[in-house]
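Pilot study result, target chain (234 residues):
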Amino acid sequence: MFTNPICVALDTPDAAHAARLARTLRGKVGLVKVGMEQFYAQGRDGYAQVAAEGVPVFLDLKLHDIPNTVAQGLNSLLSLAPAPAIVNVHASGGPAMLEAAARAVDGRAKLIAVTVLTSLSDHDIHAAGFDPEASTAVTVVKLARLAKSSGLDGVVCSPHDIVSIKQACGADFMTVVPGVRPAGVDVQDQKRVATPEAARAAGADILVIGRPITQAEDPAAAASAIAQALGVTA
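Predicted structure:
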């Protein structure tokens, strides 16, 4: 696991700005997250600019396709230099896809699976075709168990699902938690949120925090304040 659990979502299409943020946050956070918006705009070169700043990268592309395509995609992503520390897929891709992903990664990075996006409510997942008798909480645990049995290292989940996942999958099964907002900060497009302290107390291994840090007047100070509140260092 990472000593400092704070992972900052850079999420900007501006490669130079992303690299500056990573440089500013070095030593203040455990990881930075490069997501779809950023990677699709900047590609491998933009990724390299961020990774060169020396902060471990969570490459958040949420692969979801047939098993061979996902496996080959992960092989390509893990050829990036330096390679990402964490990569992810969608758990709803099913056991064959998850197992192919685990074989492809083969311990070269932490491989985690998205369970249910933190922007989705019970109504949303039922409208999308998930079991109408199952809540998001029940669905998340089912997907987490599938990810673990398929050889993955952990899952992306909401702060509200951490305890049940740890109970179902064990304390060593990694929980990467978006939807984390310091007290008093607008929740924006997230629906299932918690403060960093509450998420950490519930057992979160990595806290994904974006705009409360990246849009702060002083991102390094904002990150340091959260780390201090958590009692952790880089």
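One observation from the pilot: The chain has a mean pLDDT of 92. A full batch analysis is planned for the follow-on phase.
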